[in-house]
Amino acid sequence: QVQLVESGGGLVQPGGSLRLSCAASGSILTINNMGWYRQAPGKLRELVASITSGGSTNYADSVKGRFTISRDDAKRTAYLQMNALKPEDTAVYYCNADVVTIFDPSFEGDYWGLGTQVTVSS
Questions:
Q1: What residue ranges in the chain does DSSP mark as E strands?
Q2: Chain segment 31-56, per-residue pLDDT in tens
């Protein structure tokens, strides 16, 4: 009953910028924590950045100072602003959210988007 759809990925040169969006839809009562993960070929999925409902953020060391996570609760959307991109940032980026639905306000489910490709290359 909940869908997360990522957008904004693409091909960018080293040093460039991209902004990813994650739009949540469905029978949503409230969205708690949201996060961005990424997975490069042959590697494990890793947390890139997360943000709580109160706005507290957390970043992987590799992206600190370059990436910024934010959220717009009115739009039920999370964003990941990526600056000074490096080839090492190339991966499929996934949105994750902890969501309480209108059907069971006492239960928090964990939801994932299908991912969006980010390629940093010259």
A1: 2-7, 10-12, 18-26, 28-39, 46-51, 57-59, 67-72, 77-82, 91-101, 108-112, 116-120
A2: 999 999 999 999 999 999 999 999 99
